[in-house]
Design brief:
The protein is of the alpha/beta class. It is built from 14 helices and 14 strands. The chain has 3 domains: 144 residues, HUPs (Rossmann fold), CATH 3.40.50; 137 residues, Argininosuccinate synthetase, chain A, domain 2, CATH 3.90.1260; 37 residues. The longest helix has 23 residues.
Length: 410
């Protein structure tokens, strides 16, 4: 018996087998009108087949939304995150995490536009994405109904999914009939691979899993040198060419791919409580992070730089856990953005066989004073004799502790 409380639902739809099954399941289980939303975040796939698949499954043309979000994704989500030099658990550049709030936000906007009373996603009940989608839904539309099929249906195996698809005339690609060797999520920032052949953390990632990066061992024997220009913390150009955010990241991705940059084999702690092994490829993002830290090294005051590094793990955790639209993330973002006021200039980088190194940096706002740091005489702003009092004051508590230990013979 179909559920009747939902009249119209907006589904985050990729056009793949799983979301096509979900589409049909929603129609069958809820007896509701389904609206599909497919976001182009630079995943590198042709999205028009998603429109054709939705039409085939009975979706009205006016209920099919496909939107190119690449520029907004990089400008409004990736770049603000990179201003903080954000990495989760010291390594992960949050390529999947940062995409979810944008997709969910657009779903809510479409729901408002078409008068839908529900939204649905294809995230499983074990992962982080269900949390990221739903925290955004509720933050932006508190009264929305959320449907998470993987937490409701009884389709528990690949065989059951295939059987459901066959029973409802859902097209199945040949490569989908067998057991999927691993799952992939991709966007302009990264590609992530998880599951099946990657589930044993003791085993090396097979070569065929990599899609965004060439093998570093096969990368050119000659290093590639590039210059990245920044303005107020955001990259604006490469080698003198001014580029839009998405175009710039696309070019960095190509440079990173050719030089085997950005591979990460990670066992991470999911928000839902379990550990997960994944393989991430973030070629352009890895270059961008190194470049941003390079320009900050000469433009940020020590106190501001160190405070940013202290705040970053909390900021990264908020994004990873799905709290992009939270007051605490907004507060941290305001502080981070303030710190970028003078983070402008250019950074020269050397790309070579999987590595990226900063080899030069310059800025009109540089705090680096060559006369001050030189070992040669001539600097008038620094008197070596001042260091003695500075050291003795900082040593006062250590000397006091040492005297107590000596007195007590500890």
């Amino acid at each position: 018996m179909p559920k009747t409380s939902v009249k119209k639902v907006v589904l985050a739809y990729s056009g793949g087998l799983d979301t096509s099954i979900i589409l049909k399941w929603l129609q069958q289980t809820y007896g509701c009108e389904v609206v599909t939303f497919t976001a182009d975040l630079g995943q590198g796939e042709e999205l028009e087949p998603a429109r054709a698949k939705a039409l085939l499954l009975g979706i009205k043309p006016e209920n099919i939304f496909i939107e190119d979000l690449r520029e907004g994704f990089v400008r409004d989500y990736v770049f603000p995150m990179f201003r903080a030099n954000t990495v989760y658990e010291g390594q992960y550049l949050l390529g999947t995490s940062i995409a979810r709030p944008l997709i969910a936000k657009k779903q809510i906007e479409i729901a408002e536009k078409v008068g839908a009373d529900a939204v649905a996603h294809g995230a499983t009940g074990k992962g982080n994405d269900q949390v990221r989608f739903e925290l955004t839904y509720y933050a932006l539309k508190p009264d929305v109904t959320v449907i998470a099929p993987w937490r409701e249906w009884d389709l528990r195996s690949r065989e059951q999914l295939i059987a459901f698809a066959e029973a409802h005339q859902i097209p199945i690609a040949k490569d989908k009939r067998g057991d999927a060797p691993f799952s992939v999520d991709a966007n302009l920032l990264h590609a992530s691979s998880e599951g099946k052949v990657l589930e044993d953390p003791a085993q090396e990632v097979p070569d065929y899993v990599y899609s965004r990066t060439d093998n570093p061992e096969d990368a050119p024997d000659k290093p590639t040198y590039i210059s990245v220009e920044f303005e107020r913390g955001d990259a604006i150009g490469i080698d003198g060419d001014k580029l839009s955010p998405a175009t710039l990241l696309t070019r960095l991705n190509a440079l990173g791919k050719a030089n085997g940059i950005g591979r990460l084999d990670l066992v991470e702690n999911r928000f839902v409580g379990m550990k997960s092994r994944g393989m991430y490829e973030t070629p352009g993002g890895t270059i961008l992070l190194a470049a941003h830290r390079g320009i900050e090294s000469i433009t940020l005051d020590r106190g501001a730089a160190h405070l940013k590094d202290e705040l970053m793990p909390k900021y990264a955790e908020l994004i990873y856990n799905g709290f992009w639209f939270s007051p605490e993330r907004d507060m941290l973002q305001a502080a981070i953005d303030k710190s970028q006021e003078y983070v402008s200039g250019s950074v020269r980088l050397k790309l070579y066989k999987g590595g990226v190194a900063v080899v030069g940096r310059e800025s009109p706002y540089s705090l680096y004073d060559q006369e001050l740091v030189t070992f040669e005489e001539g600097a008038v702003a620094y008197d070596h004799r001042d260091a003695e009092g500075f050291i003795r004051l900082n040593a006062l508590r250590l000397r006091t502790l040492g005297q107590r230990k000596k007195k007590l013979k500890l």
